Amino acid sequence: MPVTIYAHPLFIKHETPPSHPESPARYETLLTALSPFPQITPEPRPIEDLILKAHTLSHLAFLKESTIEDEITCIDGKDIFLSTYSIDSAKQAVINICQAITDLKDGRIEHAFCLSRPPGHHAEANKAMGFCLFNTVFLGALHAKESGFTRVAILDFDVHHGNGTDTMIRAHEEENLFFISTHQSPLYPWTGDAETSTSKILNYPLAPDTGSTEMRTLYTEKIFPALKDFAPDILLLSAGFDAHEADPHGGLNWTTDDYRWLGEQLKPYKTVSTLEGGYNLPALRDSVLAFIEGVG
Ligand SMILES: [Zn+2]
Description:
10 helices; 296 residues
């Protein structure tokens, strides 16, 4: 069964300044490329109760207070921007992953790819970080537990460490929730050293300028056996594509074919992916397509 795409027009409305890498064009490019696949557009619905299980009330209040109608506002003095519909867009990312998980639980789909923005894996309980406002994948994991999945794994293959997901899993002490991250190190957000791994969090840094061979060896020898041992009944993916050799933000030199291979290896699991990074538009388009063709 092909991968089902979870989309929403709100993802075009999260505006960033013209030169910003995390742009509405990422969504538009992917939506066009993924048009042959089955697509679901979940209706917006109240989702703040779930968001507040992982984020603080002051975080939500700060984002709301920082939003100025018809303006694009920088909230960290650097590279995180809010526009009129940014909070709605970030909420929709959470709604979409939850809908995909529910649909998978009910047997309506086998694999989902949530074509969402902004990304989520850097967002911490009380802090927006690295273009991320809410931690979509962690909130998805909480929803998966509430939906009756018992063993929930998150694999984060974005080039950056999923620091927000990592800290939330440490803070929540949720049973049978397992997190694996592979990421370039040193690189933003400067976390995810191997020494920080625990029984439920595996951090695997990869050195800059490594490539396909190192990536496939690490996944074959460490990641896939760890996943097999944990035996998740659902696998959530922080699906970032900025480890691609053409991406301006990473230096791991993964190829489009590496993403196809990764997708093929994950096919035996029930997967729900949510889009994280990936900033070279042609490379992002080709990598997402290859990954989805591999999984489906
Ligand atoms: Zn990234």
